[in-house]
Structures are given as C-alpha cells and as structure tokens.
Automatic annotation (TrEMBL):
A Pfam match: FAD_binding_4
Protein name: FAD/FMN-dependent dehydrogenase
Keyword Disulfide bond: no
UniProt source species: Rhizobium leguminosarum bv. trifolii WSM597
Lineage of the organism: Bacteria, Pseudomonadati, Pseudomonadota, Alphaproteobacteria, Hyphomicrobiales
UniProtKB keywords: FAD, Flavoprotein
Molecular function as annotated in GO: catalytic activity; FAD binding
Coiled coil regions, renumbered to chain: none
C-alpha cells in the first residue's frame, strides 16, 4: 500500500521499505517526479514543481544491528544521526569521518538522518585523516527509480560482493535511488585532542604549514584555515598528544603557536565542520575540491571576484561565499570540482560539478539504468 501524505500536503513519508517501493513504482508508472529530502537538512529548500511530491525517509527508522566489538552498525535510513552518535558514544566510538551538520548554513529545520548523510556523502574535517563517508560503507539497501529494492554489500568488514553500488549511491543525492538501510564501519573515539593555532598567516603560509605537518608521522586529524588563522588538530591518548604537540612546535619554531585543548578545541572544530563562519553571509556558498598545492592560486582568483574563502582538509577543500556568477566561479576554479551548497538562484546546472563527455556518458547510462523514468530529484540534474 502506498504511504499516505505526512508532515504537509506535499510530503509523503513511507514507514517501511515496502511502502517506499510501492510509492516509487506508482510514481514511475505515472511519471510523477519526486523530491527526495531524507530528514530535510542537506539540501537548500526549493519550491516544488507542479505535480512534484516531496518524499521523506524520516519514518523508516531503527537500529537493526550494532556490534561494538566488530566496529559495525546497521540502521535504517531515517534514523536520526544524533541517535546514532549517542549510541556510539556510549561504547566509546564515533563515525570516523565526522559528518557535517548543514542546518546552520542552509537554515533548514529538519533532523539529519543516516540516509541523508550517505546520500550526500557528508564528511567533516577528519576526512583528510580517516577518509570520506563512502570509504566507511559496508553496504546499502535502496529503492531505485522503478521501485525495485536493491541490496549491495554486507554487514561485516570482510565482505566481497562484486560491483560496489554503495559508492555510486553515496553522494548521488537521491538521483540514483532512495537509501533505506545502511551498514557502516565505526571507529574508536580519541581520548583527547588539542589544536595548534597559527595566527596572522597568509593562505600561502598556511599551505606550507599543512603540507609540512601532513608529511610527518604525527597523525594530523584536522588542518583548516580561516580569517588569517591556520589550525592543526591532533587526537589520541594523552601521552601521544603531548609528544606530538612538542615535536610540531619544534618543527614550526619560527611561528608563535597557541593551543586550544579539551572543549575549546572541540567547539572550534564543530564551527569549522559546519562552516559557521559563512552561516549568516546571505551569499551563495560553494564547496570546491582542489589539489592542496593549488589552493593559494584558486583562493586568490576567488577573492578577486569578491567574497571570502576558507580552507579545510589541509587545503584540499575550499569554501567560498560571494556574489560571483557560476560561470565566473567555474572559470577561476578551472578543472577543480566546484559545487553549489547554498544558492538556488544560480540554477541546477551549478549543483553538480561539470562532467567531461566520457564521465557524462557513464552518468547518463547509470541514471537510465537506475531511474529510467527520470523521477528522482530531477531538479538537481541538467538532463
């Protein structure tokens, strides 16, 4: 039976994978487009087109299996992310990639969900140390654009199942399928953290600090730059932290280095993770992936367009907030992967980075396979 509308007249909220499958199958037959919103926090709110319906997974909830000793967790897509993190915290564990919370940046009021995190491949500052969300997936279940339930991967780390569809689904923003269940690796939580603070440095100086620090064996788990301040985070056991801090201070003896520790360090990195420094600018916000050594040149070009920038992932991620047009931003970024996070006025062509003709051919083939009717989040795509 197809789920009845919930939350408002334009939002459907199936309570199970079976209901979601029926809903999508009926929509595919009728050609009705669906806006997949998960918990409603990862995409900037946009008005629905005529006949389009919003579909939320937030009622498909519950932890299916959690094995702390095996570092694995299986949960349904609508499970609130804060419930997952609270459960892990009770066992001294975390999601190693430190997923961002978009609510401040996008001014959304929903609840972040596990499925939304996977659909958007959400990562935070720890990505440079632990990898992205997709690197920690063991498997997914999802409903494709025809209403078929597809299962890929498994529930253990030693798992071989052929083509890894999990990595295709992760970061596809619902354009290939609607995630209904996730199997993911967990990690031990660090006992302590400290942040080394380098004040009054340029982007080029920050770039040198990052590349030098990340070439050491001192396990840097955060490297960011904002408002002329570069920061390096170290996490681990207390004795490890003390040793690494002193070695890094010796390495950068030409700089005046401050220290954030304990809660102050955690609060600082939450701000970096959630890009709070751009939350109230009111301008479009771009997420730009570059080679870290290219960051100073790209930042210089962006700042000539007007607006402000910051760096994360050791310079591999540039955040840009400004009034520049999509064409100007992409011109400055060249071959970099630039995606609009906030700024619907720039249009759907700005959401996903441009693809070369070979990648575009593969992408269209995948969408034709998993969503032949073109009903899943079509307003994010330049079809």
């Amino acid at each position: 039976m197809v789920a009845k509308p919930s939350f408002d007249d334009n939002c459907l909220a199936p309570t199970s994978e079976g209901e979601m499958s029926n809903l999508v199958a009926e929509s595919a037959r009728s050609g009705a487009q669906l806006r997949i919103i998960g918990g409603g926090t990862r995409l900037e709110p946009m008005s629905l087109a005529s006949g389009q319906k919003a579909v939320s997974t937030r009622l498909i909830t519950g932890v299916v299996d959690y094995e702390p000793g095996a570092l694995t967790l299986v949960a349904r897509a609508g499970t609130p992310l804060h419930q997952i993190e609270t459960l892990l915290e009770g066992e001294g564990q975390i999601l190693a990639f430190e997923p961002m919370d978009h609510r401040h940046l996008l001014e959304t009021t929903g609840t972040p969900t596990l499925g939304g995190m996977v659909g958007a491949n959400v990562c935070g500052p720890r990505r440079l140390f632990a990898g992205a969300c997709r690197d920690h997936l063991l498997g997914v279940r999802f409903v494709d654009g025809s209403g078929r339930v597809v299962k890929n991967g498994g529930r253990v780390m030693k798992n071989v199942t052929g083509l890894d569809l999990s990595k295709l689904i992760c970061g596809s923003f619902g354009t290939l399928g609607i995630v209904t269940e996730v199997s993911i690796k967990t990690a031990a939580a660090p006992e302590r953290e400290e942040t080394l603070v380098f004040g009054d440095v340029t982007v080029s100086e920050a770039n040198v600090i990052f590349t030098t620090a990340l070439a050491t064996p001192f396990e840097i788990s955060g490297a960011a730059y904002s408002q002329r301040t570069a920061t390096l985070r170290i996490q681990g056991f207390p004795q490890q932290i003390a040793y690494r801090r002193e070695r890094l201070k010796e390495l950068f003896c030409n700089y005046s280095i401050g220290i954030f520790d304990g809660e102050r360090s955690k609060e600082y990195w939450i701000g970096i993770r959630d890009v709070l420094h751009f939350a109230s600018t009111g301008h479009p916000v771009w997420q730009i992936l570059v080679r870290p050594t290219d960051a100073p040149g790209v930042v210089s070009g962006l700042e000539r367009l007007g607006g402000t920038t910051s760096l994360d992932w050791g310079g591999g991620l540039i955040w840009y907030s400004g009034k520049a047009s999509a064409a100007d931003v992409r011109r400055v970024c060249g071959g970099s992967q630039a995606r609009v996070v906030r700024g619907t006025t720039l249009g759907p062509k700005s959401f996903f980075p441009p693809e070369n003709k070979f990648v575009s051919r593969i992408s269209r083939s995948l969408r034709a396979t998993f969503d032949p009717a073109g009903i899943l989040n079509p307003d994010l795509l330049d079809r």
